[in-house]
Write a structure and sequence with these properties.
The protein has about 280 residues and is an alpha/beta fold. About 40% of the residues lie in helices and about 20% in strands. It has ten helices and nine strands. The strands form two sheets. The protein has a six-stranded parallel beta sheet, sandwiched between helices. The protein has a three-stranded antiparallel beta sheet with strand order 7-8-9. Strand 2, helix 2 and strand 3 form a beta-alpha-beta unit. Helix 6 packs across helix 7. The chain starts with a strand and ends with a strand. The structure holds adenosine monophosphate (AMP).
Length: about 280
Amino acid sequence: MVRVVHTKEELRDALDEQGGNRALVMTMGALHEGHLSLVRAARARAHTVVVSIYVNPLQFAPGEDFEAYPRDLEADVALLEQVGVEIVFAPSDETLYPREPLVRIDPGSVATRYEGCTRPTHFAGVLQIVNKVMNLVRPDLAFFGQKDAQQLALIRTMVDDLNLDVEIVPVPIVREESGLALSSRNLYLSEEERIEALALSQALGVGRDAAAHGGDPSQALAAATRVLEEAPGVRVDYVDLVDPSTFLPVEEGATTGLLIVAAWVGSTRLIDNLEVAFRG
Ligand code: AMP
C-alpha cells in the first residue's frame, strides 16, 4: 500500500518506517509510461521507492505553462499503486518554499545553452528543487530520464561538483509506437498536432541513419535539420549534435554524439534526443 505524504514531517516519519536502500524518482505528475519506467527501474534496485510529485514553480518562467500544467494526484497515485512504491511525496508550495529562497544553485555555463537559451531560469529552478527534495529524501539512488538529457547532464554535474552522496541512474526514453517520445505535454496536442509532432523523432532517426551510412557529424545534423525544416506545423527552436555530458557541439571526427531537438508544434514546445554513432 502506497503511503501519500505531503509535509516534511510526514515524509520523515514514513521514511523512518522503511529499511534497506532507498531510491528517488522525481516527477511533476501527469504520469505516463515514461515516468513508470523510471519507477520500475528504481523498484528493481531499491528496497524503498519514493516518488515525488510536484510542479515546481521555480523552473517555469512567467508566460510558460505553470498554471496549465496537468495535475491529477489521484490518477497518479493509482498508477504508482500498480507498480508498487512505498512512498509518494506530494508537497504543497508552502512546504517546499515557505518563503522565496535566498540561497540559489547556480547551474553554470551548460545551463545557458539549448534549453537554457530559450528558458534562461529553467535549470537553476530544476537544480534547486532536485537538491531540496534529495536533501529531504536522502536517497541512495535517484533515477532520471534521458528524455531530459541536458537536465540529466546538469544533475550529474551538480552531484559531482557538490559531492552529493547519491548515485544518479539514467533511464532510456520511452516512446509511443509512432516514435513520439512520451511527455506530459503531449496532452496539449490536438490530433493533427500529434501527427505533426512525429517530425521530431523522424528527424532524429534520419540523422542516425545518415551517420550509420557513413555520414559525418555535419552531414547527420544537416539530414535531421532538413526533415524538421520541411515538416508542416513544426517551428524549430534548436537542433544540434552535442557531447551528452558537456552539451558542447561534437567535434568533427567524434565517434558518437547526442542529436538533440526542441520545437514548437502549435503552441506546445517539445524536446527529444537520440544517440548517434559514426563510423569514423
Ligand atoms: P517530468 O514529470 O516531466 O518532470 O519528468 C520526470 C522524470 O521523468 C524526468 O527524469 C524525465 O526525464 C522522465 N521522463 C519524462 N518523460 C520520459 C520518457 N518519455 N522516457 C523516459 N523518461 C521520461
